[in-house]
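Posting for a labmate who doesn't have an account.
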Amino acid sequence: MKNLLTIAGSDSGGGAGIQADLKTFAAHGTYGMSVICAVTAQNTQGVTAVQDIDPAIVTAQIAAVFDDIRVDGVKIGMLSHSPIIEAVAAGLVKYKPKIVVLDPVMISKSGYALLAPDACAALIEELLPLATLVTPNLPEAEAICGFKVEDEAAMVRAAKKIIELGAKAVLVKGGHLRGDASDLLFDGTSERWFPAKRIPGRNTHGTGCTLSSALAADLAKGLSLTEAVAAAKAYVTEGIKNGLDIGSGCGPLHHFVSLYAKAGL
């Protein structure tokens, strides 16, 4: 069994963040571990408060995991401030995990800022060069690259820029495009588009977290980048199609839809 570590923030509503990551790891037949970098007060309607974890505790969590358990892949999610980003980067440099999937979480689906403005530079400088794969949506790609990313031509420019900044590969997610959503995978040499029809429905909370965690699990299990993206997108698509109507806002996708089906639920 592969061991996967998520380094991210907690979602009290259970649909995104650490909770979504651990569900995704379990659904992929891997063992999930966590380093919690922030605690959010969050539900299906949005984020109301965030409490950051002391960077020293973040460092201690990373050491506790790596010093005892083999880590086959790392997914990085919400890191809100520069000192936490620096602590995570130092841990990655020290322990050198083979697979690092970076989801540069900046704004919640409800519009709550999850990354401090001064922390964007730290994310770019400290974490991008350590990433096996970076998975920005269009607003995040804009923040990283410094120019508007509103169509497929700009997605190509953004992907090339992110590789120039040090990432080994990038998946620019097209969920914010008008019409259907196409994602672009670029590894510095070749481009691969993954077109997809837009799925109607509001229960999409945690899709970004889930996709990046699925990618980390699939890469750790030996899939190529192209295979991992295809598999992760298929997993997320089924989760969205069977989204859970929980709460009065944007509910989560269903992380265990295939397992529930096998169990007759």
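Reply:
Got it, the structure tokens are right above this. The chain has a mean pLDDT of 93.
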